[in-house]
Amino acid sequence: MKILVIEDEPDMLDNMVRSLEEEKYVVEVATTFETASEKIHLYQYDCILLDIGLPDGNGLTILEELKVLDATQGVIIVSARNAVDDRVAGLNLGADDYLPKPFHMAELHARVKSVLRRRKFAGNQHIELGNLKINPEERNVFIDDELITLNRKEYDILLYFISNKNRLVSKTALGEHVWGDQVDEADSFDFIYSQIKNLRKKLKEHGSQLEIQAIYGIGYKLVQA
C-alpha cells in the first residue's frame, strides 16, 4: 500500500514516515503545497495524510484538486487546526477522516487501516478471490487455507493486482505503486520482472485459481481461472 504524507513539520513528518514504514507501507512525502499538488497529479496513492496548514498554500485546496481529478484514494486530514469549520470543510470536500494533533501513532495506523478497508475492500477484514484469501492487516496470504510465504514486494504486487482485478496494469504504474516515485530513476524494469516471476511461480505451485497474465510490451493482468 502506498501512502503520501503531506506535512511541513520536520519532527512530525519523520515520526509519521518511520512509523508507517515499520508497518510495511510505501511512503512518499511532500512538505509544500507545490510539491503535494505535483505528486497527486503524477502518481496514484492508496491513502493521503494531509496537513491543512502548509507554508505555501491551504491543504483544503489539495482536496479540491483531488475532487477535480476524480481520485479514489482515501484522505485523512492530520492537522493542529481543530476548528469545526475546517473539519466540516474538509469532510465536505471528500476527506474520509480527521485526526487532530497531537495523536498517538497507534491511532494513526488504526485510522489508515480503516480508510483502506472502506476504500479498497468495501470494509471487509479479509479479501477472498477464487481460492485465495488475504488478511491485509496481518499481511497473510492463504490458498485453500494454506499459508503461503511471500516477501514484502511479492505481497504488495499481489495486493495491487487484486485491487485492479481484470484491469490492464502497466509496468510503470506497478513500479510506481510498489516501489514509489524513485522507480523513475531505475535503468530498467528487471527488478519488477524478477518479483513477478517469483510470485507467479508461488501461486502456481500452491494451486491458485488466480493467474497473472503478461500482456506483451504493455504490462500485466490478474485473471481468475
Structural overview:
The protein has 225 residues and is of the alpha/beta class. The chain folds into two domains: 120 residues, Response regulator (Rossmann fold), CATH 3.40.50.2300; 98 residues, Orthogonal Bundle (Arc Repressor Mutant, subunit A). It is 43% helix and 25% strand. The chain is built from eight helices and 14 strands. The strands form four sheets. Strands 2-1-3-6-7 form a five-stranded parallel β-sheet, sandwiched between helices. Helix 2 runs parallel beside helix 3. The radius of gyration is 18 Å and the shape is globular. It starts with a strand and ends with a strand.
Outline of the structure:
With 225 residues, this protein is α/β, with parallel strands linked by helices.
CATH superfamily of the largest domain: Response regulator
Strand content: 15-25%
Number of strands: 14
SSE pattern, N- to C-terminal: EHEHEEEHEHEHEEEEHEHHEE
Tally of separate domains: 2
Low-confidence stretches: none
**C-alpha termini separation:** 25 Å
Largest sheet: 5 strands, parallel
CATH architecture of the largest domain: 3-Layer(aba) Sandwich
Structural class, by secondary structure, is alpha/beta
CATH class of the largest domain: Alpha Beta
- Rounded to the nearest angstrom, the radius of gyration is 18 Å
**Largest beta sheet: strand ordering:** 2-1-3-6-7
What spatial form do the alpha-carbon principal axes imply?
A: globular
What name does the CATH topology of the largest domain carry? Rossmann fold
* Helical residues, percent: 40-55%
With helices defined by DSSP (H or I, 4 residues minimum), what is the helix count? 8
Output mean pLDDT: 88
